[in-house]
Amino acid sequence: MINYLISPGGKLSGNLRVPGDKSISHRALMLAAIADGQSRITGFLDGGDTLATMAAFKAMGVEIQHTSENEVLVNGVGKGGLSTPGKVLNLGNSGTSVRLLSGLLAGLGVECELTGDHSLMSRPMRRIIDPLQKMHALITCSEDGTLPIHIKGGACLTAIDFEMPVASAQLKSSLLLAGLSAKGRTRIHEPVATRDHTERMLRQFAYQVECAGNTISLEGGGALLGTNIEVPADISSAAFFIVGACIAEGSELIIENVGINPNRDAVIHILREMGADITLLNEKIVSGEPIADIQVRTSELHGIDIPESRVPAAIDEFPVIMVAAACAQGVTRLTGAGELRVKESDRIAAMSEGLQTLGIEVEEQETGMTVTGGTIEGGEINSFTDHRIAMAFSIAGLNARAPITVKDCANVETSFPGFVELAKNAGLDLLVQEQV
Ligand code: S3P
């Protein structure tokens, strides 16, 4: 078991680059694999989750070369070119891999079984299975709505008009990807807008997608054309350093080339509403996605009621936003965030337990939590093998009064390879301990 030991204090400074966006890397790879022709992906996240997607396509006969660090060359096989894998596809910890691949593969004639690690095995899959079955996919999951998922070849998908019951980009994307091989026009209505990386990525591969309000639609049957994609740095990884610089005395930091898609950037808005000193520099569009350098300085934070409308666009950042809340003056209330209970861990429970261990007053509710800012003490934290819980509590060490041990941090590699080195270079006093 890998634990992190964080000594209190320190400040964050300098210019840094965090790894490529996880959501965008998955999508670039998936579309490149089924496109006609070659694609080059730069800035690719070489993390456990995206490497699981890569291994799945290799097992289905796609030639993928890692030409250098963070750069992959994919020889697309076209929509009809995937072969049936000779083994079970194990997607490890990655919900995005399993949900998006289920949709993509359902209509491509591939016979396969999808499975994952202990955390992924307990996450809800019925939300994708039910609508995919409505599209006539031959797909099943276990009785209790979890992995393994089985997909049979030979299904002829038909398009559906679907009202999404939850705000989930993985669900939306799964159905859009199934729609690529369905007969007719697939129409998805979202309750609130979620990250639109799939829609943007499809257009990069010359596939038409229409968006009108919160309805997204595409016509099945077309082909995708291979292309070159530059993946921006992941705002979800940058978020740890943004909060770190806000709460550590004497910090000034620039994080370069970060994706600031309007459906992902709510962490910036929420922190600014809490008083954070954040400036966006060099804004531009790269491979269809907005990016910027993010400058952050130490800030006097105060508690707020987080608007529920901001929840989907900050869904992965709440562990570290709750650390900011613990360091803020007054009370922060998070509501309407029940989806946090079905992430890599139950993040409402994990953050409540961890913050309380560190002496912070927290009230846990079914769909959120109330955090009263205070003094962060030391203690031993359970990460519940969740990468973002592990990194959030590591960052809390910058403003703690005593050492913090975060247990079971190996999964940080799933989204943020190199976190320890980068954090140490920026100013966090972190020691990796291997416990046998
Ligand atoms: C993701 C969507 C979100 C997010 C996850 C990545 C994606 O999940 O939490 O980390 O790449 O589409 P949900 O769709 O379950 O909200």
Principal-axis shape equals globular
Number of helices: 14
Q: What structural category arises from helix and sheet content?
A: alpha+beta
**Number of β-strand runs:** 23
Specify the CATH class of the largest domain: Alpha Beta
**CATH fold descriptor of the largest domain:** UDP-n-acetylglucosamine1-carboxyvinyl-transferase, Chain
Mean pLDDT across residues: 98
Q: Give the amount of beta strand, in percent.
A: 25-35%
Please, could you describe this protein's structure?
The chain has 436 residues and is an alpha+beta fold. Helices cover 31% and strands 26% of the residues. It contains 14 helices and 23 strands. A hairpin with a 2-residue loop joins strand 12 (210-212) and strand 13 (215-219). Helix 1 packs parallel to helix 2 (48-59) and helix 8 runs parallel beside helix 12 (387-396). The mean pLDDT is 98. Bound molecules: shikimate-3-phosphate. Residues 23, 96, 168-171, 173, 195, 315-316, 339 line the site of shikimate-3-phosphate.
